[in-house]
Design brief:
8 strands; 8-stranded parallel barrel; alpha/beta; binds cytidine-5'-monophosphate
């Protein structure tokens, strides 16, 4: 059974390139995140292929629509056998509740995760769409709403971890991107954290892309991050 806390972001436009990269990994060594670009190019069959190769898949499609549509999309995603899926908490309590209810007949449902406020948004952006107050307040409120609606956790940035870890139930998963091992390139991430510090701050799963996908020896980087996580795990 896979118990890795590392979710490798498979940010490839070309499924063949993604498979070439996976040839260099051991399936039990990590989980995989498939986002909108790769999914639109390669489809459900590719996701099934990854699962058949032995990988747990986080299908990162961030559903946001009326409750019935999101619920049925979640059922369709769950039927693929993926390990984790996500929806936007801003879709509302009823939407999240419908997604949870729709998965109730699945004997092995995926973890259902909510996105609170996209980390690409700043204060001026949320004010422009009519949200007053601070991003931190909205993140905390939406995470609480997600928990009440039966979500299994939220995606959050590393700098939101401490705030959420202190306020959410201990079984509520915190899934965190923007992770960079010490000394690795920052790329376009603005506020980064090391794997060890993110785990110490309360992260349950780390989404890591380029530090692993662009490494000359991905398995070596994965092994080093896994060791760092083990040391930091409380
Ligand atoms: O390559 P890198 O480690 O920066 O990849 C991070 C992954 O996490 C990408 O797939 C990116 O889209 C995703 N992500 C993020 N920040 C968020 C939400 C998702 O970097 N706030």
């Amino acid at each position: 059974m896979n118990n890795s806390r590392i979710i490798v972001a498979l940010d490839y436009a070309d499924p063949a390139k993604a498979l070439q990269f996976l040839d260099r990994l051991e399936p039990g060594s990590c989980r995989l995140k498939v986002g909108k670009e790769l999914f639109c190019r390669s489809g459900p069959a590719f996701v099934s292929k990854l699962i058949n190769l032995g990988f747990d898949v986080f299908l990162d499609l961030k559903f946001h629509d009326i409750p019935n549509t999101v619920a049925q999309a979640c059922v369709a995603a769950a039927d693929l056998g993926v390990w984790m899926i996500n929806v936007h908490a801003l879709g509302g309590f009823k939407m999240m509740e419908a997604a949870r209810a729709a998965l109730s007949s699945n004997p092995n449902p995926p973890l259902l995760i909510a996105v609170t406020i996209l980390t690409s948004l700043g204060d001026e952006d949320i004010h422009a769409v009519g949200l007053s107050g601070s991003i931190a307040q909205h993140v905390q409120r939406l995470a609480a709403l997600a928990g009440q609606a039966g979500m299994n956790g939220v995606v959050c940035s590393a700098h939101e971890l401490a705030l959420l870890h202190a306020s959410v139930d201990k079984n509520f998963c915190l899934v965190t991107p923007g992770i960079r091992p010490a000394g690795s390139a920052q790329d376009d991430q603005r506020r980064i954290m090391t794997p060890g510090d993110a785990i110490t701050s309360g992260a349950n799963y780390l989404v890591i892309g380029r530090p692993i996908t662009a490494a000359s020896d991905p398995m070596q980087v994965l092994t080093a991050i896994t060791a760092e996580i083990e040391i930091a795990t409380p």
